[in-house]
Design goal:
The protein has 406 residues and is mainly alpha-helical. Helix content is 83%, strand content 2%. Among the domains are: 135 residues; 131 residues. Strands 1-2 form a two-stranded parallel ribbon. Helix 1 runs antiparallel to helix 5 and helix 6 crosses helix 7.
Length: 406
């Protein structure tokens, strides 16, 4: 069997060609059976016309109401049979299937009409009724034979495969769009990297400026001093928390809860904004509690806490506060000078642009990851559907094809 290569774009056209070849003999049978339905419809129409004529010729022997029933039945049958006999000859599975549906509907309407009116008629029209029943039997057989011809053909499977091919082509189009979006996203990411390099170069130029280097040195000193404050007060954190719990149940307590919480939770802010004597008073209370044994704590940690309290009372906290505020003042003065010269605003613009580029990079990276995932899933689905379509087309048409994914 010769293997036919085809792209996804050309697959619908190739399948139509193969389907026409596979349906050629079946469509000849459709034509034959459709003519049978049309001829049977003509026979029913003729029989109904003769029946109507017979009813009209029986005025003297038939009640008026019965006669009207007969005429009404005959005219209804004629009308529905005429629709069948005048149907255009179908040439495809689709048009034949449409004819079959309409034939079944027309036949059912005729049968319902007969069942409704025939019992009301007299038996004097036996010959005409027999002729009409015979024509109806032929029509029923013709419609049934047309349905069997449709069922025995691969037409319904071809229709289903045709829809699957269109869906498959849409899947491939969607995959191409995903790949195009991925290419655009990668190009944008490359452009983003180039912008980031330019901004970094500009940033280095500012950072190398003496004023910014001095600001960076002061900021490093400030961070170091913050760490020093936290480390100095660390031995007091747990003792202070236990002091609060112990004194909370005592009457007439004057414990400064706000300062206590500040030293525990915000040591840098508390040391640099509170008055030293306020903190010393609190630490005196802590020292008394430790000396009296009201706070359960390991001996080594108790000695460390008492040592920290003594250092604080000897001026350690005051010294830390003054050092921090001095460095902070230097930072602020340096910032003021940079703002006056306009360098700070320019540096801030660079920082903002750098942040924007960084956000864009994150979005693009996320988008690329998502696109790669979707492309991978789409590839798996398309390959699976491709194999299924190749098998179905081979079964329906007897032709071996190889679909090439774009």
């Amino acid at each position: 069997m010769k293997l036919t290569d085809v792209t996804v774009v050309n697959l619908p056209e190739l399948f139509e060609s193969l389907a026409r070849e596979a349906m050629k003999e079946h469509e000849k049978r459709f034509l034959e059976k459709s003519r049978g339905v049309r001829d049977a419809g003509n026979s029913v129409e003729a029989a109904a016309s003769k029946f109507e004529a017979a009813v009209r010729n029986s005025w003297g022997t038939m009640d008026k109401a019965v006669s009207e029933y007969g005429i009404r039945m005959a005219q209804t049958i004629e009308e529905n049979a005429r629709k069948l006999s005048q149907q255009p000859t179908p040439s495809t599975y689709e048009s034949t299937e449409k004819l079959h549906v309409e034939s079944v509907e027309g036949l059912n309407k005729i049968i319902k009409t007969v069942r409704r009116y025939l019992p009301k008629l007299r038996r004097g029209l036996r010959v005409e009724i027999a002729a009409l029943n015979g024509a109806l039997n032929k029509l029923e057989l013709a419609v049934r034979s047309l349905g069997e011809a449709l069922d025995q053909s691969p037409g319904s499977k071809i229709e289903l495969t045709r829809r699957e091919i269109l869906h498959f082509k849409q899947q491939n189009d969607d995959l191409l769009k995903l790949r195009a979006n991925l290419a655009n996203a990668n190009a944008s990411l490359e452009a983003n990297a180039s912008k980031a390099m330019e901004v970094s170069k500009t940033e280095r130029q500012y950072i190398s400026n003496d004023a910014f280097q001095e600001l960076a040195r002061y900021e490093d000193l400030l961070r170091a001093k913050e760490a020093e404050i936290k480390q100095f007060l660390q031995p007091l954190v747990k003792p202070l928390a236990k002091l609060e719990r112990n004194d909370s149940g005592r009457r007439n307590t004057t414990l400064d809860i706000a300062t206590l919480h500040g030293l525990v939770d915000r040591p840098v802010e508390t040391v640099t904004t509170n008055q030293p004597f306020v903190m010393i008073q609190l630490l005196d209370r802590l020292g008394e509690a430790l000396a009296e044994g009201r706070i359960e704590i390991e001996e080594r940690k108790r000695r460390k806490a008492e040592e920290t309290i003594l250092q604080s009372k000897a001026g350690a906290i005051q010294k830390l506060r003054e050092d921090y505020l001095t460095i902070q003042a230097n930072v602020q003065e340096t910032i003021r000078q940079l703002r006056t010269t306009g360098l700070l605003d320019k540096k801030n613009e660079v920082d903002q642009l750098k942040a924007t580029i960084g956000d864009q990079k994150d979005r693009l990276t996320t988008q690329i990851t998502d696109l790669n995932r979707r492309i991978e899933n789409a590839n798996k689905t398309i390959l699976k559907d491709r194999d299924s379509l190749q098998d179905k087309i081979r079964e329906l048409t007897g032709k071996e094809i190889q679909i090439h994914i774009d």
